[in-house]
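Re-run with default settings, no changes from the original entry. Doing this only to confirm the output is reproducible before filing.
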Amino acid sequence: MTGPDPDDEPPAELHLTAAEQSLWYACRDSSELDLSTGRLGDDDPTAAEVRWGPDRHIRGHVIVHLLLRGPTPRMGQAAAVRLKGASVTGAIDLSGADIVPRLELRDCYLESPLRLTGSVADSVHLRRCRIPRLEADGFTSRGSLHVNRCLLPGGIALQQAHIGMDLVLTHSVVKGIDPGGRVVSADGLAVAQDVNADGVTTVGEVSLRGARIGGDFTMRGSVLHNPGGTALNAPRITVDHQLVLAPGADLDPQTGEPVPAMVRKPRLEGRLCLDGGTFGTLLMLGELPLRSDGMLSLQRIQTPEFVFTPEPELRDGDWPCRVNVSNAQVGRLRDLPTSWPGIGGLIMGGFRYETLAPVGRFSLSDRINWVQSGSPEFTPEPYDQLAAVLRADGQESEADFVMLTKLRRRRENAPASLKMWEYVQDWTFGYGYRPQRALIWIAMLWCCGSVVFAHNPPRPLKPGEGPRWDPALYTLDLLLPIVDLGQASAWRPVGFYQIVATELIVIGWLLATIVTAGAAKVIFRKS
C-alpha cells in the first residue's frame, strides 16, 4: 500500500490552526517549529503562571495524529515532531501505539499528562518542559528517553519500561500529588545503557525495585527529599557498571560556567534502600549529607568497590540515621572513620570485604571502634573478618592486636569461674599473641629467685659432690621444666626456701604450658 502524496495537505477535519499547519509541514522534514518569543521571561514553561496566546497553542490530539498518521516524510528525510515554545492543550495520549517519528518537545507547557503507557517508540526527547505527569508504564523505546531540565509536578511512571539506549533525567524536578508518596515509580525498569539523573530533585519516593541498568547509574549533585519516608527504594537493583551518588561537576556541561557548591552537593533526606543490589564495578555514596532520621539499608549488596564517605549532620554528637551492611559482599572498601555511626547505629553481621583502602587516615584503633560499633553484643565474626583482611595485606601485628581485642571482649561475657584463667592468659602472654610477655615474666622471676638464693643458698644433697653452686643457674633450672641444668637435683632447700623453689617450679610449668598452648593456637590460626 502506498502512502499519501508528499505534497498533500493536512486533512480538513483536523481544522488546523496556522501554528498547527506549520507543525504539519515541519514534521515532513524533521525540522523544528519554534513558537518562542526569544524573551526569557515569556518563554519559561515552568514559571508560576504561563499565559501564552493562542498563536502558541498546539492541540494534543494533533500531535498524536502527526505521530501516528502524519504526512509522508520528504525524500531522504525522517519524519519527526519537533516543537519548541508551545502550549500544548489537551492530552497527548499515545497509549499502546507504535510510534515511528521521533518526538521532541522543548520549552513546552503541557496542560495534561503525557501518556506513553504500553507504547513503542524510537526515541522521545523532552527538554525544559512543564509536564503534569509522565505516564510510561510498559513503554518500550528503541532509542533513548530524555527528560532533561523538566518540571513534573505529578511524577513519572516507568514500571516495566524498556529503554533501548539511555534514560536521561538530568536537572529535572519531580514531585508528587501525595506528600511522601511515590514520585518516580519505575519498578522492573530495564535500561540497555546508562541512567543519567545528575542534578535531579525528587520530592517523595523514587522506587526502582528490581530495575536493571546495563551501564552507569549516576546521580551526581542530586537531591532526594522525603523526610520520614524512603527517598530511594531500589532493592534488587542491578547496575552493570557503577552507581554513583556524589557531588556534581564543577562546570555546567551546557554553558561551561562554574556551578555553585550548594547546587553540586547531593543531599539525602529520608531512607535509602539498596538491599540485594548488584553493582558491576562500583557503588559510591560520596560526600552525601544525611539530614534526617532513617536508614541506609545496604544489606546483601555485591560490588567490587564500595566508596562510602557520607557527611552526616550530627545531632548532639549522634548520627542522624542507621547503616545496615549485613551480609554485604565488597571487594575494596574505601571509607573514613566519620563514615560510620557509633554503637547501636551500625549493623554489620556477615559483612564481607577483601581489602581496605580508606580515603583518609583510618587508624587501627578507629577500625576496632568501627567493628565494636557494629557488634554491640559480642560476636567474633567482625573481628575475624578484619584480622583476616589485615593479615592478607601483610599487617601481621595489627591482625594479632585485633584478635587479642576480640578475646578480651569475649572475656567480658565469660563466667566468673573462668575469668581468672582468662586474665592469667592475658597477663602472661596475651593469649598467645604476646609471647614476649612470658619471657619478661621468666626474666623477672629469674632475677628475684637469683637474689633470694644468692643470700640463702640451699644445702647440697651430697656434700663434696655435684656442680659448683650458682644461684642464677639454680633458679633457671627451677623455672625451665624441660631443660635440666643439673642444679635443681643437686641442692636441697629447706623451710621457706623450699616453698619458694616449689612455687618457681609450678610457675615454670604453668608458663611453659600456657606459652606452648597459645603458640600452637596462633600457629594453627595463621596456617
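Residues 290 and 312 are 5 Å apart (CA to CA). Residues 1-6 have pLDDT under 50 and may be disordered.
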